[in-house]
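Let us begin with a simple case.
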Amino acid sequence: MDVWRLFLSVLCLLPLGACGGSAGKGDGTPYMCVVRDPGDVVDGGSCEALTTDYAQCVDDSWAACASDSGEYSRIQESISTVARVQAFEEIATLLFDPKADPSAMDFLSARAKYQEDEGLDSRVVRRYDPHVDVPEGTDCSADGVPAMFPDYCVGPARLQPLILDALNAGYNDGNGASDPRVQAARVEAGLLWFLYVSTYKEGLTCTTKAKDCDSAYAYYTGGETDRGGIGLAGRVRSVSAYAHDRAWDGLLALRCWRDLDSGEVAGDLTLRELARDQLDRAVLFGLATVVRDRIYQYDATTGSEQDYHRAFVQTLAPSLYREAQAQSAADAMAFEAEISKLADDTVDVPALLSILDRVFDCP
């Protein structure tokens, strides 16, 4: 098998179109195309990639590029975003356990980690969501603007208040006020929402700042290699290896675009949108699979453990409303209605899962 894979890799050095177009960097150095073992790709059932999607080492519509190596090719060796995703994991160790109550000191430590200089909070407060159309020039840092455009200014309008409120309430709850697990779940869900939006946003601003492609890669994977991942990627991978694998393909598509369109300001916006759409479809599908899994966990547990999963779903499910509306107004309305029923435990879980499966059927 190793000999066969080596043979295929050598083939990809030749200008035969096996990796899509001419196989070279432009300076005469060929790209090494690494063929993945088919066992590395988890079966997605009836799902198929679009014909315009980037795919490593197959005869697609993309020219040869740095992504054909199978690894994300960093534009800058050091990516500051990695530390923020690692901070997420440190907070996770302190708080994100549905089976145990975090202490007041756990919440205090988590808040300190969250509010480190140039840390998570510094980016949450500035995060806007390019999925949402707003008037040109809308500035989420201006007074009153987040309240006017809360869906677009999702960081300052929704996520930062949610996360800080949960951390502070959790500190009080940890001192015996109520159930701290609910607050921990809200923090986890809020941060995952932030990581998702950040992956998409950085893929856009990469147009004028190439290193932001690195940030998109890091916000999803935490800077991991070999198709691994922590943070959002770790949670997606734990429930849908296929979705995670497709997200990695999307990251490679983003980097391939920026390799082929390597000017200070990217000019091939058609290719950019193909890459960004491929990445967003996969990461959003992955986020939906995480929500789906927590709905199942809610239905299978009781007591404080169930409270954790309920609060998590109530907090993160709204991040899916936009796409649900785009797919089906009827399903979107039914989805929101069932999520609202979590508050008094009257939700029809099979119906809710069925809606999710219809709206998010393939990445």
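The second case is a distinct protein. As before, the sequence precedes its structure tokens.
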Amino acid sequence: MPPTDRIRDHAGQGAPTVAAQRTRRRLRADRARQLADLLRHQLLTRGFPAGTLPHESTLATDYRTSRNTVRQALDLLRAEGLVDRLPGVGTVVVAQKYPHGLDRLMGLAETLREHGHVTNEVRTMAPAPAPAPVAERLHVPPGTDILCIERLRRLNGLPLSLDLTYLPLDIGTALLGADLENTDVFRLLEAVTGQRLGHAEITLEAVSADAHSATVLEAPRGAAVLMLERLTHLADGRPVDLEFIRFRGDRITMSGLLHRSL
């Protein structure tokens, strides 16, 4: 049996009619998802001329697929809020995702400086007894007062992240009169301590937006948000900044450069 025939047979084309139809529908959905991934990558990295995607027939020819698959792929991108279809115009890009690197220790304003101005709305800022998990990670006795800061961070006015930050009080007290609305905490920490930041431990996961987060970020309740948990240390190794950052998943993309070591 020729290789192509074996592939078709393995894909279910020789199965009974009902099963074959289900397989074909699944394969079309798979192809649409795969095409959406390719188009999303181009949209986010290189863009499209004048912000308009090629005609459906052009995409079908370029990617050697059917127009139905192209339509399904575009529907997926539209559901993500990245594109929309305008009568007489076609499919246009209506939103942007901003790149956030994972291979350098930088504040949000430093990370996105090429994309606009980051501002911070300080929603809460007060000392509070450290919960045991926070105290353990900041190397302070449980119940010791720490400084808690919650900030809504915007890029060019667009709500982008909701940050909850825990700082040891001996360092945090020096930030009480600082310009937290326009300055990254990282820069302030280095100024207050006279040390460079050294390294950070990070965890990234997707979580559902709770009612509070969804309202503040102007995102649909239950929508996926990217939760970045980060514990940052000074150059001498002292942990000084524990953060739980909720990013709007529809407006941020995480990237980094990884090296394989054996």
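DSSP finds nine helices and ten strands in the chain. The longest strand covers residues 118-129.
Keep these points in mind for the review questions at the end of the chapter.
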